[in-house]
Design goal:
Translation Initiation Factor IF3; four-stranded mixed sheet; elongated; UPF0145_dom_sf; UPF0145 protein KHB02_011150; UPF0145_YbjQ-like
Length: 106
Amino acid sequence: MIIVTTENIANHKVTEVLGPVFGLTVRARGIGKDIMASLKGLVGGEINQYTEMLEDARKQAIDRMVKNAAAMGANAIVMMRFDSGEIGQNMSEIVAYGTAVVAEKE
């Protein structure tokens, strides 16, 4: 599956636009990660526990988006983006979205 953030794919021609596609995941922070992050916040620097959680969430959102696009018959996704939000005080929503297309090599 080709995934690009651009409208076009280099050396490819879009022959069919299948429609919007997305992958969604919601992650909750655990009490242990919150405690470690709070301690790290006192001294400053990157909070690795949250970075890892968000990286995993983005990967899972992309995997779900690809699965949905494949079910539609797509071999590529153009204009891919991420969006995120918070649900409650300890949950994060990550969505990967784009347009599912059929593309052929020129």
